Amino acid sequence: MKKIVVLTGAGISAESGLKTFRDSDGLWEGFNIEDVATPEAWRRNPELVQNFYNERRKSVLEAQPNAAHIALAKLEEKYEVTVITQNIDDLHERGGSTNVVHLHGIITRSQSSKNPSLTYPIDGWEIKMGEKCELGSQLRAHVVWFGEAVPMIGKAARICTGADIFILVGSSLAVYPAAGLVDYVPRDTPKYIVDPKIPYMNRDSSYIKIEEKASIGVVTLVTRLLNEE
């Protein structure tokens, strides 16, 4: 069974109504990234950061997977599929994908402020100040902030080296180290990119470009791949 590796970014979640900061001057829901998505912000004003992610979690839980999420899951009928996502929502899982690697964490879990490997399910949409992990430190969103290590990057790179087919969806390739994953895909592997604004690809011009939003382009591509002999 051929292995398909899919790398997804903010564009696929945007169609489910989840706002991103990719196209809006570094603002996310009206906040500067430095004020809500860095370790320094957490030390400076943990209540603000906690409330910000509580509201984002609420939005995620209210959102629904779109046609692109559902189509990617259908690939599992014929291929061994791994979705590597830069997104912190759980829409791939709810869309039916069974093998998802979250590079930047997943907002529907909490984590220890002392040890990021200690993570917990969240009952509902809110982490309250005063809720603590087993080490006695405040729980926070299980999200990788700017300036923090990306613990899943090594695993993701190894997965990319084994891709028989590679698909890039809704990513501007602007955020590292995630953007560097495309360099681990073997040169002779068929590669597709689906995005209404195809980013400049100076590494490899062999990408087959589908200049559509994810809900259209991914569905078209998945149909083609499922019908291949």
Short structural description:
By secondary structure, the protein is α/β, with parallel strands linked by helices. It is built from eight helices and eleven strands.
Attribute tags:
229 residues; alpha/beta; Rossmann fold; SIR2/SIRT2 'Small Domain'; 30% helix
Strand and helix layout:
Elements: E1 3-8, H1 10-14, E2 27-28, E3 31-32, H2 33-36, H3 39-44, H4 46-62, H5 67-74, E4 80-85, H6 91-95, E5 100-102, E6 105-112, E7 119-121, E8 139-143, H7 153-161, E9 165-169, E10 191-194, E11 208-210, H8 214-227
Parallel strand pairs: 1-4, 1-9, 4-5, 9-10, 10-11
Antiparallel strand pairs: 2-3, 6-7, 6-8
Helix pairs in contact: 5-8
Give a structural overview.
There is one protein chain. The chain has helices at residues 10-14, 33-36, 39-44, 46-62, 67-74, 91-95, 153-161, 214-227; strands at residues 3-8, 27-28, 31-32, 80-85, 100-102, 105-112, 119-121, 139-143, 165-169, 191-194, 208-210. It is of the alpha/beta class. The protein folds into 2 domains: 1-18 and 66-104 and 150-229, TPP-binding domain (Rossmann fold, 3-Layer(aba) Sandwich), CATH 3.40.50; 19-62 and 107-143, 2-Layer Sandwich (SIR2/SIRT2 'Small Domain'). It has a 6-stranded parallel beta sheet with strand order 5-4-1-9-10-11, with helices on both faces. Strands 7-6-8 form a 3-stranded antiparallel beta sheet, with helices on one face. It has a two-stranded antiparallel sheet with strand order 2-3. The longest helix has 17 residues, at 46-62. It is elongated, with a radius of gyration of 18 Å. The mean pLDDT is 92.
